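Researcher: Please generate the 3D structure of the following complex. Treat every line as part of one assembly.
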Amino acid sequence: MRKMVFVAMAIVLVLVIGMVFMLVSNRIEAKDRPIIVIPKTIDSRVEFWQVLKQGVKVAAKEYNTDVTIIGTPSESDIDDQIRLVEEAIAQKPKAIVLAATDYNRLVPVAHKAIRAGIRLITVDSGLEGGISSSFIATDSYAAGGKAVDAMRRYVQGPAKFAIVSFVKTSTTQMDRENGVRDRLLNDPSIQVLDTLYSNGSEDKAYAQTKMLLTEHPDIRGIFGLNEVSTVGAARALKDMGLGGSIKLVGFDSSMNEIGFLEADILQATIVQKPFNMGYLAVKTALQVYNGEKVRPVVDTGSEVITKENMYTSENQKLLFPFIE
Amino acid sequence: MRFKSIHTKIALAFSCLILCTTIVLSYSAYRLSTVAVTDTSLDYTQQLIEQVNKNIQTYIGNMESISALSLSNADLQHYLELANPNGPEGRQLAGQISRYFHEIVASRNDISSILFAGSNGALVSDRSYEHLKPYAELITQDWYAKASETKGDIVISSSHVQHLYQDEYKWVVTISKQLPKSSPMTASGVLLVDLNYNVINDLCNQIQLGQRGYVFILDPAGDLIYHPQQQLVYSGLKSEDIPKLLQASDSTFRTEEADQSKIYTVRTTKFGWKIVGVTYPEDLIGNKRDMQLTSAVWGGISLIVALAISVLLSITLTRPIKQLEVHMKQVEKGNFDIRVDVEGTNEISKLSRTFNLMIGKIKELMNQTLQDQEVKRISELKALQAQIQPHFLYNTLDSIIWMAEMGKVEEVVTMTSALSKLLRSSISKGEELIPIAVELEHIHNYLTIQNIRYRNKFTYAIDVEPEILECHILKIVLQPMVENSIYHGMKHLPERGHIQITGRRTAGIIELKVIDNGVGMSEAQLQRLRQKAREPESGKGFGLLNVNHRIQLYFGEHYGLQFESELEEGTTVTVRIPDRLPVPILDKVAGG
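Model: Done. Output below.
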């Protein structure tokens, strides 16, 4: 009889201790293990990543989780980024949010992270094979379609269009180009010239656009598939005095682009939402960590900015992100 | 089975009671402190929001005074009166005003720029003319248009990107005010003062409302002036209950959304902005988990302590009972020599004392019974001996021989037949109780023998009521009485005596009397005899006392022999026995 009472007491004791231990250890664990975010660069001059970082921080605060942001000084430091991911794995974080600087070369280290039991979320730029738990990015294909819709507001009827792109192998560029081309495909009155590749050089884009316009004076519209290509093309149009008469729809935003928008040389630009990207990346990482089901691809959306709507409250935030 | 012991019951009852109490207490303590902490947090939030409200009003107030100061500038008035502000005089005035504006802006880092545009085409700011966008574009902007509409009232914009200057896009809050025409001749104009958005951003950003709470600012139109998650709101990833907020006066209220609830704390500034603090109920109690933990831990500890105490208490309470039980078991096995030692004055110790007394009494009674049995056995033996004393037998046989020699055949036959019956009756059955008739038969034989032996020294008569003949009596009761009468009464009597045996029933008692008219006893002798009869163990007394003893052992103290005697007159010995026999004895008779 007495034995039974002791057993009962022992059970109660064990339960209480277990409960305390569970509560305490939960707290320690939750606090100690951060989410590591690795953008393509931590260069403070690159607005896109700065805004993404803001989104990350807001999410970190809202969901009460530690976030460490590490990154390379430049978007082209692929080896350094691989090394950073290795370091991140060593810290055993809850999750790694990665904006891969290379579609293929980051794959092995990403596999390593997944094998180590770390949840991997890719943001903005994905990885070959879609190995991450979720990919948070702008739907570039849809954005390409939006660019066409914007262009068609200025150029109706049969027309010849040109595309100035950046790097041929970039998945973002491929998706944008396919988005543009596929939207124009079913209209036989439309002719789309071969894509020009600026390889990330504004001057090259400028030169290529000039040459293109000389060769095909009947072009009615140009798509600039990224900031550099758009600004290069805009400069060419401005210098040739064709600003406004040949319509230009670009991507991304910068002071230069805004200048061209206000000068009516650039009719519209398709901007992404890096703040939402950062926020959703952290949110999704936590959801994955907590075992919730998430969508494999999350589209953060894009907006078409024109001179008319650039100063609306919503668009101001996208075009002119307030960076402290 | 195991749960039926008092010990377990007490322990269980205590445990349940304690468990309930502890849970209720811990939970209510937790609830109370939660409420207290929530209230404190809400108070704190309100104070913070009040503070933000005051700070923002101060900034806007400053801007208003700056605008008033700027507008009161005499040069500006003069500048407006010019028909062509772009003429040389206008240029010079503009230069002076610009320097004045510049000084103000340079002295304050919260002001980002000051600009004045007149309806006459006048345009002046704190920066040089070249940086400005064209006049035609500027006057289409909101700040100019709205200020012109309100005619002199201060217009405060939402936060926005200022695009007054070439290639400069700063986040600001603009206040603009129209300077009305001082006379019909002069032009009107609008003055703009830009407040660095940094100021508001920093102010709101540094406010910590719990773990996840934040502050945001709404303008009267419902536009977000500041919101840390503005882009999420615009993208529809977050939402605030703006219509409700716009209607709310200074208050605190709660909204329930799909996944969580928020607490809004609203303050309205003088110029219509709403400063809104958002807190999450679960955040208000920042250390909710700590509190839960503390309540749980202390609840657990007190539970364990209380359980331990309850177990100890139940052990303490039931130990004496168990002790008692162990002792009772021993008694069950036949050990009456034990005593239970339970100290104290409580119920259990009283019980043990009673138990001790009881055991004592039982032991005493058992001894008594043993003694009684012993005495009975001896008495019976004595009775048997008394019945046929060898002496009596020899004497009787001698008498028979003598009578035979004398040729008294008839008497020999009578005596021998009586002796034969006497012997048979005494040997035959081993029963102790016999009907009175049998006893009378026996005494008749005995008297026959004695009468012949003592040559008719006495006569006798038996006069017993017939209805008591079937009543039971101990055997060999009358013989010692009669023997006594013969030996002590008749033997020494010079003349012939008489022995009368009577028997009758009175009030449930049967009285048999042996009455003689022999020598009798003196008072002293009688006293001695009575005295002896009262002593419990008379030892080897004579037959009468043995009879008395046997009767009392059998039927109780009320019964027995009574003696009456008078010297020279005779002696009467009365034996009193109950009319009805006690039931167990009756059973024995029936069964035997």
